[in-house]
Amino acid sequence: MKIILLIAFILISKGMFSENISPVGKWKTYDDEDGRLKSIVEIWQEDKILFGKIIELFRLPDEDPNPICDECKGKNKDKPILGLIILWEMKPKSNKWKGGKILDPENGKIYGCKIKVVDGGERLEVRGFLGISLLGRTQYWEKVE
């Protein structure tokens, strides 16, 4: 009986202290080089799978206000970046979402991706990588209030 209670306590404690908050919502992205606000990405869920698209762009006065993904290949070639689906097929795994892909519209490249909600739901840890997660980079997106 003590073992069953101990197991129940561990399972309940794990659920109470792990950040298992949904990434569904709107997130601010920032430029890796200068840190300026770059876009807002909306993440939604269909049948337990996450997708994300760019819903707003923040452009400098000298930048094209309606850029296209001229570096993209296939169906995204020359599509407007605004409205572009950049995150797809993310599946839940513990307190993370994995197995999906992320598109970098700056260079048109597609990377493996995993995401995790952190800081009590205020930030999203987004890791894009080639092949294995060790060969990649992490960005932090902030929740839109």
Task: Describe this protein's structure.
With 145 residues, the chain is mainly β. The chain has one domain: Lipocalin, CATH 2.40.128. 11% of the residues lie in helices and 47% in strands. The chain is built from one helix and eight strands; from the N terminus they run H-E-E-E-E-E-E-E-E. It has one helix at residues 2-17, and strands at 25-30, 37-46, 49-57, 85-93, 96-104, 109-118, 123-129, 136-143. Strands 1-2-3-4-5-6-7-8 form an eight-stranded antiparallel beta barrel. The N and C termini lie far apart (46 Å). The model is unreliable at 5-18 (pLDDT under 50).
Strand order of the largest sheet: 1-2-3-4-5-6-7-8
Distance between the termini: 46 Å
Instruction: Tell me the radius of gyration.
Output: 18 Å
| Structural class designation | mainly beta
Mean pLDDT: 89
Beta-strand residue fraction: over 45%
Strand tally is 8
Residue share in helices?
10-25%
Poorly predicted ranges (pLDDT <50, ≥5 residues)? Answer: 5-18
In CATH, the architecture is: Beta Barrel
Number of domains: 1
Q: What name does the CATH topology carry?
A: Lipocalin
Order of helices and strands: HEEEEEEEE
Shape: globular
CATH class: Mainly Beta
Number of helices: 1
Reported for the largest beta sheet, the result is: 8 strands, antiparallel, barrel
